[in-house]
Design goal:
By secondary structure, this protein is an alpha/beta fold. The protein has 10 helices and 6 strands. Helix 5 packs across helix 8.
């Protein structure tokens, strides 16, 4: 109760829900944790197997309190305070930006979205939807839910339209150059999530070494 009271000042969303942020891997989720701390948010560490059940217990017990893992969405959406931020890009430029990424990623695995975030926020974020992540984690410990572990994963790829690179991509007239920037940004997002490996990682390293 004391903790909920302490975070209420800064971690209450537009619907008056107090949002408890947590992580289960302090190193693997370092980038997301840091983004939360940059906004003066508190992040709890739940890194034991039993914590999954503990979180569910708290969600059923506590009223107007939601538990959200720190990498479940962009930080502005995790604690939605209904702060409307305009995009520096026109609607046409935003569409060019989104289409540029759709031409590079596999849309069966990635849902490309745009968001008007702060310029200092990251350019591209790869997010595993909260419900999907929970189902997969539960399937590890429950044979009856193993079917969820066999479902193909789909990630949300969120592009910050207010990041300086967004303007650079949307205004790039050369299609080859634009594609190269998008591929580099996408690979960096994959790398930050430890999702870049094998041939793709080798190509990424070679491409960057060639630029040195």
């Amino acid at each position: 109760d004391q903790y909920i009271e302490e975070i209420a000042i800064n971690q209450t969303d537009k619907d008056d829900n107090r949002i408890v942020l947590y992580a289960n891997d302090s190193q693997g989720q370092y980038e997301f944790i840091q983004k939360a701390k940059d906004k003066a948010y508190s992040v709890l560490l739940f890194d034991e197997i039993i914590d999954n059940h503990f979180i569910q217990h708290l969600e059923t017990k506590l009223e107007k309190v939601q538990m959200k893992r720190v990498d479940a969405d962009t930080i502005d959406k995790l604690i939605d305070k209904d702060e409307n931020r305009e995009s520096v890009l026109s609607e046409e430029d935003v569409q060019v930006l989104a289409d540029s990424f759709k031409s590079v990623v596999d849309e069966e695995n990635y849902d490309v979205q745009t968001a008007n975030l702060a310029p200092e926020d990251g350019f591209v974020s790869i997010i595993r939807p909260e419900w999907q992540r929970r189902m997969r984690e539960m399937s590890k410990y429950s044979g009856g839910m193993s079917m969820f572990g066999n479902l193909p994963e789909k990630f949300n790829l969120t592009i910050n339209t207010n990041h300086p690179v967004a303007k650079k991509i949307s205004s790039e007239s050369d299609e080859t150059s634009r594609k190269a920037i998008v591929e580099q940004a996408f690979d960096l997002a994959l790398l930050s999530q430890n999702m870049l490996s094998g041939e793709k990682l080798s190509e990424f390293i070679k491409r960057n070494v060639d630029k040195l």
